[in-house]
Amino acid sequence: MARINFVKGMMPVILKKRKSSDFIQSMEVLLRRLPGTHSKKTLIENDLAKRKAGFRGEEAVDYFIKDSKEITIVHDIRLSNGAEFFQIDTMLISSNFILILEIKNISGTIYFDPTFNQLIQTRQENERGFLDPLIQAKRQQRELIKWLHAVKISIPVEYLIVISNPSTVIKTASYHREALNKVLHASHLIERIERLKEKYPEETLSHKEIRKLSKTIVNKHIPANYNVLKYYDIHEKEIITGIPCPACSRLPMKRVRGTWKCVSCSTTDKKAHVRALQDYLHLISSSITNHQFREFTHLPSSNIAKKLLTGMELPCSGLFKDRTYHLSADFFEKYNFTGQK
Ligand SMILES: [Zn+2]
Which of 90, 108, 138, 146 could anchor a disulfide with 123, C-beta 3.0 to 4.6 Å? Predict the structure, then answer.
C-alpha cells in the first residue's frame, strides 16, 4: 500500500511507519500453509529472506531521514505513463527537488562495473551479479519526469543509490563518474540532500503544493495485486486448509461450544476464524462464500458459518446461497484494532 510520511519541522508530524509489504506477508502465510515436503518451499524461503533484507535496508534509510525537515517521504509507489508501469520504493519531495532513492541492502564488497553495467557482489570469495541499480534508477527518473510533466509539474528530479548496510565496501572504476556521484552509504544521505539544496536553490513547490502533489501521487498509485499462488504457480489444492492452533500450530482447530479448540493442546481461541479469513485473503481471494468458508475452516455447520461471517459485519453482496462476503486488508486492520466482535 502506498504511504506518505510528512516530515516537517513546523507542522504536525504525521509519521506512518513502514509496514512489511503485503507480498511479504502473503509469502509468510503461504509458507505456513504449504506441506513441509513441497518442492517450492526452499525457493520461497530464499525469496522471502531476500525481500526481508530489502525491507530492512529501507527501514535503515528511514532512520537517517526521519528528522530531516521540510521533506515529504512517499513510499512504495507504482505509477503508470500509459502502458508501462514504474515503481519507486522511496521518494523524497522537497520544495526544490524530488529525490528518488534506490535502496540496496547488499553485504560484502560491491563493484559497480561500468563496462557491462552490472553490480558485482563479492562475499566470502563468492561472486554474484545483480542488475545495475543505476540503470533502474535512471529509468525511474525518466518515467517520473514524464509523469510529472503530464500533471503539469516541472521540478528537478534526482536519484541516488543508497547502500543501507554500513559495512558494505563500495568500489568502482575511477572513471565511472555516475557511480562516483550517485552511490553512497545511508549515513551520508543527509549531507547529500543538503548539497542538492545548494544545487537547486529555487523553491519550486510551496508546502501546500507538496501536499497536493503527494496526494495526487497516492491517488494515482496502482497496486500491483500480485497473487502469491499465481506468482509461484501453486494450485489452491496444494494449500493446507483448516485453522492452525495459535499455541502448538497443529491443525485443525475444532468449533466447540462457541469457540475454536485445539484437539491436541486444548487451547481455545474465539477469533481463530478471523485469522483464517486473513490467510484466505492473502492466498486465495478477496471474497468468500459460506461454502468456501466452511471448506477452508473445516466447519461442518452452515448456520454457524453464517453466524460467524455476519457477526464480523463483513461487507457482503448477493442473497442466500449466493451471498459473498468481501475481505480487505483495511477491514482487518480496523477489525483487529477496535477489537470488535
Ligand atoms: Zn494446540
Answer: 108
Angle ∠(73,76,78) on CA atoms, nearest 5? 120
- What domains can you pick out in the chain, each with its CATH number? 3-220 (no CATH), 241-338 (1.10.10)
**Average model confidence (pLDDT) for the chain?**
89
pLDDT for position 309: 95
| pLDDT average per 10 residues of sequence, the chain (341 residues) | 48 42 90 95 95 88 79 88 89 94 94 95 92 95 96 96 95 95 94 94 92 89 84 96 94 94 96 96 95 96 95 91 90 76 43
Q: What's the CA-to-centroid distance between 273 and ligand 1, angstroms?
A: 15
Cα 117 to averaged position of ligand 1 atoms, centre (Å): 53
Task: Using the mean position of ligand 1's atoms as its centre, give its distance from the Cα of residue 300 in Å.
Answer: 20
Instruction: Say if strands 316-317 and 98-104 run parallel, antiparallel, or are unpaired.
Output: unpaired
User: How far apart, in whole angstroms, are the C-alpha atoms of residue 185 and residue 296?
Assistant: 47
CA of 269 to the centre of ligand 1 (A): 10
The answer to whether 18 touches 73, Cβ cutoff 8 Å, is no
Residue written as grid cell 564488497: 109
pTM of the complete model = 0.76
Degrees, nearest 5: CA angle 162-100-142: 125
Distance of CA 45 to the CA centre of its chain: 17
Beta carbons of 99 and 92 less than 8 angstroms apart: yes
Q: Which three cell numbers stand for residue 181?
A: 556521484
219 in Cβ contact with 4 (< 8 Å): no
Cα 165-24-240 angle, rounded to 5 deg: 140
**Euclidean distance between CA atoms 20 and 270, whole angstroms:** 27
Chain segment 180-218, per-residue pLDDT in tens: 999 999 999 999 999 999 999 999 999 899 989 988 998
How many whole angstroms from 16 Cα to the centroid of ligand 1? 35
